[in-house]
Protein backbone atom coordinates (compact mmCIF):
# COMPACT_ATOMS: atom_id res chain seq x y z
CA UNK A 1 0.00 0.00 0.00
CA UNK A 2 1.38 3.41 -0.97
CA UNK A 3 2.15 5.78 1.86
CA UNK A 4 -0.36 8.61 2.25
CA UNK A 5 0.69 12.24 1.87
CA UNK A 6 -0.56 13.17 5.35
CA UNK A 7 -0.59 11.32 8.66
CA UNK A 8 -2.83 12.69 11.41
CA UNK A 9 -1.53 11.51 14.79
CA UNK A 10 -4.01 11.40 17.66
CA UNK A 11 -3.14 10.40 21.25
CA UNK A 12 -6.23 8.91 22.90
CA UNK A 13 -6.86 8.34 26.59
CA UNK A 14 -10.31 7.70 28.08
CA UNK A 15 -11.93 9.69 25.30
CA UNK A 16 -14.67 7.30 24.18
CA UNK A 17 -17.26 10.09 24.44
CA UNK A 18 -15.43 12.51 22.13
CA UNK A 19 -13.09 10.62 19.81
CA UNK A 20 -15.91 9.61 17.47
CA UNK A 21 -16.66 13.25 16.65
CA UNK A 22 -12.95 13.91 16.11
CA UNK A 23 -12.63 10.99 13.70
CA UNK A 24 -15.87 11.87 11.90
CA UNK A 25 -14.50 15.37 11.27
CA UNK A 26 -11.39 13.86 9.71
CA UNK A 27 -13.33 11.45 7.52
CA UNK A 28 -15.24 14.49 6.19
CA UNK A 29 -12.04 16.16 4.89
CA UNK A 30 -12.00 17.44 1.32
CA UNK A 31 -8.47 16.01 1.08
CA UNK A 32 -8.59 12.21 0.96
CA UNK A 33 -4.87 11.33 0.78
CA UNK A 34 -4.33 10.83 4.51
CA UNK A 35 -4.25 8.32 7.31
CA UNK A 36 -5.18 8.66 10.95
CA UNK A 37 -2.77 7.08 13.43
CA UNK A 38 -4.68 6.87 16.70
CA UNK A 39 -2.77 5.67 19.76
CA UNK A 40 -4.85 4.31 22.63
CA UNK A 41 -2.79 5.19 25.70
CA UNK A 42 -3.99 2.33 27.90
CA UNK A 43 -7.52 3.69 28.26
CA UNK A 44 -9.83 2.17 30.88
CA UNK A 45 -13.06 3.15 29.11
CA UNK A 46 -14.27 2.07 25.65
CA UNK A 47 -11.83 4.22 23.69
CA UNK A 48 -10.26 1.16 22.03
CA UNK A 49 -13.69 -0.12 21.06
CA UNK A 50 -14.63 3.16 19.38
CA UNK A 51 -11.31 3.25 17.52
CA UNK A 52 -11.76 -0.35 16.38
CA UNK A 53 -15.22 0.41 15.00
CA UNK A 54 -13.99 3.43 13.02
CA UNK A 55 -10.97 1.46 11.74
CA UNK A 56 -13.38 -1.27 10.58
CA UNK A 57 -15.42 1.31 8.65
CA UNK A 58 -12.50 3.10 6.97
CA UNK A 59 -9.07 1.65 6.20
CA UNK A 60 -7.47 5.10 6.49
CA UNK A 61 -7.84 4.85 10.26
CA UNK A 62 -5.14 2.82 12.00
CA UNK A 63 -4.96 2.39 15.74
CA UNK A 64 -2.94 0.51 18.28
CA UNK A 65 -2.80 0.38 22.06
CA UNK A 66 0.16 0.97 24.31
CA UNK A 67 0.65 0.70 28.06
CA UNK A 68 -0.48 3.92 29.69
CA UNK A 69 2.48 6.28 29.62
CA UNK A 70 0.94 9.72 29.15
CA UNK A 71 0.33 12.05 26.24
CA UNK A 72 4.00 12.49 25.32
CA UNK A 73 4.62 8.78 24.92
CA UNK A 74 1.39 8.39 22.94
CA UNK A 75 2.09 11.39 20.71
CA UNK A 76 5.60 10.18 19.92
CA UNK A 77 4.36 6.65 19.27
CA UNK A 78 1.93 8.08 16.73
CA UNK A 79 4.67 10.09 15.03
CA UNK A 80 6.94 7.04 14.89
CA UNK A 81 4.19 4.99 13.24
CA UNK A 82 3.19 7.72 10.78
CA UNK A 83 3.93 7.04 7.12
CA UNK A 84 3.05 10.42 5.61
CA UNK A 85 5.26 13.11 4.13
CA UNK A 86 3.38 15.61 6.32
CA UNK A 87 2.47 14.84 9.94
CA UNK A 88 -0.47 16.59 11.61
CA UNK A 89 -1.50 16.61 15.26
CA UNK A 90 -4.99 16.51 16.62
CA UNK A 91 -6.49 15.87 20.03
CA UNK A 92 -9.29 13.38 20.53
CA UNK A 93 -11.65 16.04 21.88
CA UNK A 94 -11.25 18.52 19.01
CA UNK A 95 -12.74 18.69 15.53
CA UNK A 96 -11.14 19.61 12.20
CA UNK A 97 -13.03 21.71 9.64
CA UNK A 98 -13.46 19.99 6.23
CA UNK A 99 -10.68 21.98 4.52
CA UNK A 100 -8.10 21.71 7.29
CA UNK A 101 -5.80 19.06 5.83
CA UNK A 102 -6.05 20.35 2.27
CA UNK A 103 -5.32 23.96 3.24
CA UNK A 104 -2.38 23.15 5.51
CA UNK A 105 -0.82 20.75 3.01
CA UNK A 106 -1.22 23.35 0.27
CA UNK A 107 0.61 25.92 2.40
CA UNK A 108 3.49 23.49 2.94
CA UNK A 109 3.49 22.61 -0.77
CA UNK A 110 3.67 26.28 -1.80
CA UNK A 111 6.25 27.44 0.78
CA UNK A 112 9.18 24.98 0.79
CA UNK A 113 11.08 27.15 3.29
CA UNK A 114 8.33 26.65 5.91
CA UNK A 115 8.60 23.52 8.05
CA UNK A 116 5.52 23.75 10.28
CA UNK A 117 2.10 25.27 9.74
CA UNK A 118 -0.90 25.92 11.93
CA UNK A 119 -4.18 27.73 11.39
CA UNK A 120 -6.59 30.00 13.15
CA UNK A 121 -8.67 28.04 15.66
CA UNK A 122 -12.21 28.42 16.94
CA UNK A 123 -12.58 28.43 20.72
CA UNK A 124 -14.90 25.65 21.79
CA UNK A 125 -15.29 26.47 25.48
CA UNK A 126 -17.40 28.87 27.50
CA UNK A 127 -16.00 32.38 27.10
CA UNK A 128 -17.60 33.57 30.33
CA UNK A 129 -16.14 30.77 32.46
CA UNK A 130 -12.83 30.40 30.57
CA UNK A 131 -12.09 34.00 29.66
CA UNK A 132 -8.32 33.64 29.96
CA UNK A 133 -8.16 30.72 27.54
CA UNK A 134 -10.56 32.48 25.17
CA UNK A 135 -8.41 35.61 25.12
CA UNK A 136 -5.36 33.45 24.45
CA UNK A 137 -7.14 31.94 21.44
CA UNK A 138 -8.03 35.43 20.21
CA UNK A 139 -4.37 36.46 20.50
CA UNK A 140 -2.93 33.42 18.78
CA UNK A 141 -5.35 33.95 15.89
CA UNK A 142 -3.58 37.26 15.20
CA UNK A 143 -0.10 35.68 15.02
CA UNK A 144 -0.03 34.29 11.48
CA UNK A 145 3.18 35.01 9.58
CA UNK A 146 6.64 33.46 10.07
CA UNK A 147 7.92 36.83 11.28
CA UNK A 148 5.11 37.28 13.82
CA UNK A 149 5.46 33.73 15.13
CA UNK A 150 9.23 34.09 15.40
CA UNK A 151 9.13 37.40 17.26
CA UNK A 152 6.22 36.55 19.58
CA UNK A 153 7.40 33.07 20.57
CA UNK A 154 8.22 34.25 24.11
CA UNK A 155 4.83 35.90 24.71
CA UNK A 156 2.66 32.79 24.61
CA UNK A 157 2.56 29.52 22.71
CA UNK A 158 1.86 31.05 19.25
CA UNK A 159 0.79 27.89 17.35
CA UNK A 160 -1.70 25.71 19.29
CA UNK A 161 -0.40 22.15 19.31
CA UNK A 162 -3.59 20.39 18.06
CA UNK A 163 -3.55 22.61 14.96
CA UNK A 164 -0.05 21.87 13.66
CA UNK A 165 1.14 20.05 10.56
CA UNK A 166 4.85 19.66 9.86
CA UNK A 167 7.27 18.07 7.46
CA UNK A 168 8.60 14.66 8.43
CA UNK A 169 12.18 15.99 8.04
CA UNK A 170 11.65 18.40 10.95
CA UNK A 171 11.01 15.69 13.51
CA UNK A 172 13.81 13.57 12.01
CA UNK A 173 16.26 16.48 12.29
CA UNK A 174 15.20 18.20 15.52
CA UNK A 175 13.49 15.49 17.51
CA UNK A 176 9.96 14.74 18.75
CA UNK A 177 8.31 15.80 21.99
CA UNK A 178 10.54 15.65 25.07
CA UNK A 179 9.44 14.56 28.52
CA UNK A 180 10.21 16.76 31.52
CA UNK A 181 8.77 19.26 33.99
CA UNK A 182 7.78 21.59 31.15
CA UNK A 183 5.04 21.78 28.51
CA UNK A 184 6.28 19.44 25.80
CA UNK A 185 4.41 21.21 22.99
CA UNK A 186 5.87 24.64 23.80
CA UNK A 187 9.33 23.09 24.16
CA UNK A 188 9.06 21.47 20.72
CA UNK A 189 8.00 24.75 19.13
CA UNK A 190 10.79 26.76 20.81
CA UNK A 191 13.38 24.08 20.02
CA UNK A 192 12.46 23.96 16.35
CA UNK A 193 12.32 27.75 16.05
CA UNK A 194 15.75 27.96 17.69
CA UNK A 195 17.00 25.46 15.09
CA UNK A 196 15.75 27.76 12.32
CA UNK A 197 12.45 26.10 11.39
CA UNK A 198 10.13 28.66 9.81
CA UNK A 199 6.48 28.47 10.82
CA UNK A 200 3.32 29.97 9.37
CA UNK A 201 -0.46 29.65 9.59
CA UNK A 202 -3.35 29.30 7.21
CA UNK A 203 -5.46 32.41 7.73
CA UNK A 204 -8.66 30.42 8.23
CA UNK A 205 -10.44 28.82 11.19
CA UNK A 206 -9.75 25.15 10.54
CA UNK A 207 -9.93 23.58 14.00
CA UNK A 208 -12.55 23.62 16.74
CA UNK A 209 -10.38 23.70 19.87
CA UNK A 210 -12.48 22.50 22.75
CA UNK A 211 -11.64 23.37 26.34
CA UNK A 212 -12.98 20.70 28.68
CA UNK A 213 -12.22 20.98 32.42
CA UNK A 214 -10.19 17.76 32.18
CA UNK A 215 -7.80 19.13 29.54
CA UNK A 216 -4.22 18.39 30.65
CA UNK A 217 -3.19 22.01 30.26
CA UNK A 218 -5.63 22.77 33.08
CA UNK A 219 -4.80 19.85 35.36
CA UNK A 220 -1.14 18.79 35.00
CA UNK A 221 1.67 20.73 36.76
CA UNK A 222 3.77 20.40 33.59
CA UNK A 223 1.50 23.05 32.06
CA UNK A 224 1.22 25.54 34.92
CA UNK A 225 2.35 29.13 34.47
CA UNK A 226 5.68 28.69 36.25
CA UNK A 227 6.53 25.70 34.04
CA UNK A 228 5.86 27.78 30.93
CA UNK A 229 8.11 30.56 32.19
CA UNK A 230 10.91 28.19 33.18
CA UNK A 231 11.18 26.66 29.71
CA UNK A 232 10.59 30.04 28.05
CA UNK A 233 13.45 31.54 30.07
CA UNK A 234 15.92 28.86 28.96
CA UNK A 235 15.27 29.55 25.29
CA UNK A 236 15.04 33.33 25.79
CA UNK A 237 18.49 33.41 27.40
CA UNK A 238 20.02 31.72 24.35
CA UNK A 239 18.06 34.02 22.03
CA UNK A 240 19.40 37.06 23.88
CA UNK A 241 22.98 35.78 23.65
CA UNK A 242 22.59 35.63 19.87
CA UNK A 243 20.52 38.79 19.31
CA UNK A 244 21.07 41.33 22.09
CA UNK A 245 23.90 43.67 21.05
CA UNK A 246 24.27 44.70 24.72
CA UNK A 247 24.36 41.15 26.07
CA UNK A 248 24.12 40.32 28.90
CA UNK A 249 22.44 43.57 30.05
CA UNK A 250 18.72 44.14 29.52
CA UNK A 251 16.14 46.74 30.52
CA UNK A 252 12.88 45.40 31.97
CA UNK A 253 9.57 47.12 31.21
CA UNK A 254 7.31 46.62 34.22
CA UNK A 255 8.14 46.44 37.92
CA UNK A 256 5.16 44.79 39.56
CA UNK A 257 5.46 41.67 41.65
CA UNK A 258 4.41 39.32 38.83
CA UNK A 259 6.78 40.99 36.37
CA UNK A 260 9.70 40.69 38.77
CA UNK A 261 8.93 37.05 39.60
CA UNK A 262 9.02 36.09 35.93
CA UNK A 263 11.83 38.39 34.80
CA UNK A 264 14.00 37.36 37.75
CA UNK A 265 14.27 33.85 36.28
CA UNK A 266 16.76 35.43 33.88
CA UNK A 267 19.11 36.39 36.69
CA UNK A 268 20.17 32.82 37.47
CA UNK A 269 21.28 32.53 33.82
CA UNK A 270 23.70 35.46 34.08
CA UNK A 271 21.44 38.16 32.64
CA UNK A 272 21.85 41.59 34.29
CA UNK A 273 19.09 44.18 34.74
CA UNK A 274 20.04 47.81 34.08
CA UNK A 275 16.67 49.08 35.34
CA UNK A 276 12.97 48.42 35.69
CA UNK A 277 10.66 50.89 33.92
CA UNK A 278 7.14 51.76 35.02
CA UNK A 279 4.39 54.34 34.60
CA UNK A 280 3.12 54.12 38.20
CA UNK A 281 4.47 57.14 40.15
CA UNK A 282 4.20 55.12 43.38
CA UNK A 283 6.84 52.69 42.10
CA UNK A 284 9.21 55.09 40.34
CA UNK A 285 12.33 55.76 42.38
CA UNK A 286 12.18 52.53 44.35
CA UNK A 287 15.13 50.15 44.35
CA UNK A 288 14.31 46.45 44.05
CA UNK A 289 17.19 44.08 44.82
CA UNK A 290 19.65 46.76 43.82
CA UNK A 291 17.83 47.68 40.60
CA UNK A 292 16.14 51.09 40.25
CA UNK A 293 12.59 51.58 39.05
CA UNK A 294 12.73 54.39 36.46
CA UNK A 295 10.03 56.46 34.78
CA UNK A 296 9.26 54.77 31.47
CA UNK A 297 9.65 58.07 29.62
CA UNK A 298 13.33 58.03 30.59
CA UNK A 299 14.04 54.84 28.65
CA UNK A 300 17.31 55.08 26.65
CA UNK A 301 17.23 55.86 22.94
CA UNK A 302 17.04 52.99 20.43
CA UNK A 303 20.44 51.39 19.99
CA UNK A 304 21.51 52.25 23.53
CA UNK A 305 19.56 49.49 25.28
CA UNK A 306 17.76 46.22 24.72
CA UNK A 307 14.36 45.95 26.39
CA UNK A 308 12.13 43.09 27.48
CA UNK A 309 8.49 43.97 28.23
CA UNK A 310 7.25 41.61 30.95
CA UNK A 311 3.79 43.15 31.41
CA UNK A 312 0.99 40.73 30.59
CA UNK A 313 -2.20 42.54 31.63
CA UNK A 314 -4.76 42.73 28.86
CA UNK A 315 -4.07 45.64 26.52
CA UNK A 316 -0.75 46.51 28.18
CA UNK A 317 1.33 44.54 25.68
CA UNK A 318 -0.17 46.45 22.76
CA UNK A 319 0.23 49.79 24.55
CA UNK A 320 3.90 49.07 25.28
CA UNK A 321 4.54 48.05 21.67
CA UNK A 322 3.01 51.35 20.50
CA UNK A 323 5.08 53.30 23.06
CA UNK A 324 8.31 51.66 21.90
CA UNK A 325 7.49 52.09 18.22
CA UNK A 326 6.85 55.81 18.74
CA UNK A 327 10.36 56.07 20.17
CA UNK A 328 11.91 54.26 17.25
CA UNK A 329 12.35 50.84 18.86
CA UNK A 330 12.17 47.94 16.41
CA UNK A 331 10.76 44.57 17.47
CA UNK A 332 13.47 41.92 17.39
CA UNK A 333 16.27 44.48 17.08
CA UNK A 334 15.71 46.64 20.17
CA UNK A 335 13.24 44.61 22.21
CA UNK A 336 11.50 41.25 22.51
CA UNK A 337 8.25 40.75 24.48
CA UNK A 338 8.22 37.95 27.04
CA UNK A 339 4.77 38.14 28.68
Automatic annotation (TrEMBL):
Keywords: Glycosyltransferase, Transferase
Annotated Glycosyltransferase 2-like domain residues: 7-173
SUPFAM superfamilies noted in UniProt: Nucleotide-diphospho-sugar transferases
GO molecular function list: transferase activity
InterPro entries membership: Glyco_trans_2-like, Glycosyltransf_2, Nucleotide-diphossugar_trans
CDD domains xrefs: Glyco_tranf_GTA_type
Pfam families: Glycos_transf_2 (PF00535)
Family that this chain belongs to: Belongs to the glycosyltransferase 2 family.
Protein name as annotated: Glycosyl transferase family 2
Amino acid sequence: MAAPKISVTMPCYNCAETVGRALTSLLAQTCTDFEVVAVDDGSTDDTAGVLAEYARRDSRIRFFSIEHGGVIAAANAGIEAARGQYIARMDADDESMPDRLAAQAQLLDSTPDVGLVGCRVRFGGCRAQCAGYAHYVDWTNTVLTPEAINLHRFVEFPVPNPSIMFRRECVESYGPYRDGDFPEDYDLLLRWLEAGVRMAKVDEELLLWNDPPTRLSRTHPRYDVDAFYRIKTEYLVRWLAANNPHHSVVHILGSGRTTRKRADMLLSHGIEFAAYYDIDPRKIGHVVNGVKVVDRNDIPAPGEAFCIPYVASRGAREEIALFLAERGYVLGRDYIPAA
